[in-house]
Amino acid sequence: MAEKGVDLDAVEFVELDLAAGDNLTEDFARKNPMLGVPVLEFADGTCISESVAISRYFETLHPEPALMGGDARDQAHVTMWQRRIELGLLLPTVMAFRHTTGRFADREELCPEYGRISFDKAKAMFGFLNEHLADNQYVAGEVFSIADITAVCAVDFAARAVDLSIGDAQPHLHRWYDTVSARPAAKA
User: Fold this and answer.
1) Closest residue by Cα to residue 149 from 40, 61, 38, 48
2) Smallest Cα–Cα separation from 120: which of 89, 153, 147, 161?
3) What pTM did the predictor assign?
4) Quick check: 54 and 38 in contact, CB under 8 A?
5) Of 133, 135, 37, which is closest to residue 85 (Cα–Cα)?
6) What is the dihedral of CA 16, 18, 22, 28, to 10 degrees?
7) N or C: which end of the chain has fewer CB within 10 A?
8) Going by C-beta distance under 8 Å and a sequence separation of 6 or more, which residues neighbour residue 81?
9) Rounded to an integer, what distance in angstroms lies between the CA atom of residue 150 and that of residue 40?
10) β-pairing, 39-41 with 47-49?
11) Considering just the CA atoms, what is the radius of gyration of the chain in Å?
12) At what angle do helices 171-181 and 146-161 cross, to 10 degrees?
């Protein structure tokens, strides 16, 4: 929303304490039966969940700057990279957190080995992205996109949640991270 220039003061943000189970209540389940965040709730009570679905909504309302690609080919290219980041970096990082820290042991069965495997997958993706970014300014090429937003969130979460940080031997990933993190919307 900040990248799109949406007036953030015009939107009510409600923070949930996931560790306390705020997303596990019956009231929240009516908004998203999958119990995940984020959720965009409209004045009429309609709710949209899932980050990319919410992003698509704002992309349609505010097409510039195009964060999900311009023409059909660009949109497909950005979507490809968005999925690679979601499945290859964000998901393994989240699974490493959930299965190695025990933070949600009160509500899900843990598999520490799966957590370690997931950690290794996320770590390998850091290396893959470093190589990819040697020839690309941003994740999906030369234009900042939703893939960069998802990637920077995943990298930040990895550092905080599972102690996985960009290594000294990953200068291209460092350059990209510094560039993306310096954007005004990243501070919003």
Assistant:
1) 38
2) 89
3) 0.94
4) yes
5) 133
6) 80
7) C
8) 139, 140, 145, 147
9) 17
10) antiparallel
11) 17
12) 110
